[in-house]
Write a structure and sequence with these properties.
Shape: rod-shaped
Largest sheet: none
Order of helices and strands: H
Number of helices: 1
Structural class: mainly alpha
Distance between the termini: 76 Å
Strand content: under 5%
Radius of gyration: 25 Å
Helix content: 55-70%
Length: 52
């Protein structure tokens, strides 16, 4: 009976740890997307696009 407690604790710790890693990755990806510049919208009709 005492052998099952460490196994259960290890399983619980692994599940919590993997959930924490997944949450951290989602947070980093969300922050990375916010820092990327967005593309400008379409040019309104009647105006010529400016090109260099």
């Amino acid at each position: 009976m005492t052998d099952k407690i460490p196994k259960t604790a290890a399983i619980a710790a692994g599940a919590i740890g993997s959930a924490a890693v997944a949450a951290a990755l989602l947070y980093v990806n969300r922050r990375k997307k916010q820092n990327e510049p967005t593309q400008p919208g379409p040019i309104p009709s009647g105006e010529k696009p400016e090109t260099d």
